[in-house]
Specification:
single chain; about 100 residues; mainly alpha; 3 helices
């Protein structure tokens, strides 16, 4: 006798998992069955599960946040410019004529 398990997941997660498991030569249903079999054989989750004890978010003032955003934007622009220079073989600086 077989039992049925029904669960709801986000459409995007379902699509991504279907694609992943298809690439691995199986399907999502079989992958879930493998997970359950492994969990039973290990008497627990077949991977590490732990709770974060420290707060991963650093508290900061609005001005500190704005300064970090400013630095981040500047770095992103610098990175984009360097990527374009590398991609198109442009010099690091354009000389004034």
């Amino acid at each position: 006798m077989a039992s049925t398990i029904q669960l709801r997941v986000d459409d995007d997660l379902k699509l991504k998992s279907d694609n992943l498991f298809r690439d691995l030569g199986t399907d999502t249903t079989t992958a879930i069955r493998i997970f359950l079999t492994k969990a039973v054989s290990m008497n627990g989750f077949p991977f590490e599960v732990r709770k974060t004890t420290a707060d991963p978010y650093v508290k900061m003032t609005e001005s500190e946040l704005l300064k970090k955003l400013e630095i981040s934007r500047a770095q992103a622009v610098d990175d984009a410019v360097m990527d374009m220079r590398d991609k198109y073989g442009l010099p690091d600086a354009i000389a004034n004529s």
